[in-house]
Design a protein that fits this description.
383 residues; alpha+beta; Heat Shock Protein 90; five-stranded mixed β-sheet; two-stranded antiparallel sheet; 10% strand
């Protein structure tokens, strides 16, 4: 039966029962004191019971409260105790009934925020994540619970929106090369005399390589997000120097200078994953730049262990409201094609920063990005 009762009813029954028990104990104590401590000796008056008080009767000296005229009759101590039990019993029932009513009202008042939290949770199960409880009042336990639930809904809403964008962008990225390949083949088959296999082959090969590169980048992202990091000592400065040397040719081709300041800095992590993190950040800094631009790579050891990696570059101005989207998979400024403000010649799949963030978080680190007023970004990774 109790399983079908509401929390409000259970609280009312619990507090009502406790109150009834306390009242019963109080009645028992009073009854015990009246019965045994102290012993009152009441002498019988001369004359019949209920005889009126004489007119010339004077009260004894000392304080005396005036009482209304009447008749006082006490036949035995048992009558006093019986009257006491009846009086206390009726009072106990009345007080208990009143207490149950008060407990019911107070419990409903205290538990009313739970109804709002339950309604919000039920709404969230239907997929509606934009509604919030916004519980007013003091910061008590229920207020903290409601605020925590609102924060969870906000995070879920952001995550679901990011996943929906990721699914749409991934479908587009994977479909585009296939559609381009199909168009090339259809045109070649429709006019075979106008197309040379030696011209069509490299185009198809380049489109195919784009599909492979996108798929491989997705696999790297999935691996980074669910990676089991094999930790060990890693010379972050030496690793950064190798990556800078690896991208030197591409930087020279794009007329971008790369400067580095790499004092000794040891961290704990997976060398392969940290190399991928560095490669993605430096590649992004070089590719999203302009001719004559600059890239600066630096590491700084921390006094308590670990270190900080910074990669800065010049380039197009990035608005502050776009910074939070840079770490989303397939995100490119001004559309996937990088139009209208993207660096000339910038290539990629929009997965570089997403992979870097996944690797940093897998190492228990943090990654953040700051936009320069003159253009370009500074990405900081703390390990």
């Amino acid at each position: 039966m109790t399983a079908r009762l509401s929390v409000r009813a259970k609280l009312t029954l619990v507090y009502g029962t406790l109150m009834l028990v306390v009242e019963a104990i109080l009645l028992a104590v009073v009854y015990f004191l009246m019965t045994y401590v102290p012993v009152y000796r009441i002498a019988a008056a001369d004359g019949p019971v209920g005889m009126p008080v004489p007119d010339d009767w004077q009260p004894p000296p000392g304080p005396w409260d005036a009482q209304p005229a009447g008749v006082i009759a006490i036949s035995s101590k048992a009558d006093v105790l019986t009257s006491l039990l009846w009086s206390f019993g009726v009072g106990l029932l009345l007080v208990t009934a009143l207490g149950l009513l008060v407990c019911w009202l107070v419990a409903g008042r205290v538990l009313s925020p739970l109804a709002r939290i339950t309604a919000a949770a039920h709404t969230a199960t239907t997929g509606t994540l934009h509604e919030r409880i916004a519980l007013p009042g003091r910061a008590d336990e229920l207020k903290k619970l409601a605020d925590t639930f609102d924060g969870m809904l906000a995070r879920l809403e952001r995550e679901f929106a990011a996943h929906q964008r990721f699914a749409a962008n991934a479908a587009h990225e994977l479909r585009t090369p296939l559609a381009v390949t199909r168009t090339m083949l259809q045109v070649a088959l429709a006019h075979p005399e106008d197309h040379d296999l030696r011209e069509l082959g490299p185009k198809l090969l380049a489109t195919n390589e784009r599909s492979i590169a996108t798929t491989e980048a997705l696999l790297v992202l999935a691996s980074a997000e669910h990676a089991r990091v094999r930790t060990g000592p890693v010379d972050l400065a030496a690793l950064a120097g190798e990556v800078v040397g690896q991208v030197a040719a591409e930087a020279a081709q794009r007329e971008v200078s790369v400067a580095h300041r790499l004092p000794g800095c040891w961290v704990t992590g997976d060398p392969a994953l940290l190399r991928q993190l560095l490669l993605n950040l430096v590649h992004n800094a070089v590719r999203h730049n302009h001719a004559g631009g600059q890239v600066a790579v630096g590491v700084l050891p921390a006094a308590a262990g670990g270190g900080t990696l910074t990669v800065s570059n010049t380039g197009p101005v990035v608005p502050q409201d776009e910074l939070s989207f840079l770490f989303e998979p397939f995100y490119r400024r001004h559309g996937r094609a990088g139009r209208g403000g993207a660096a000339p010649g910038a290539v990629g799949h929009g997965l570089g920063l997403a992979i870097a963030r996944a690797i940093a978080e897998a190492h228990g680190g943090r990654i953040c990005v700051v936009a320069h007023h003159a253009g370009g970004l500074t990405v900081t990774v703390t390990l």
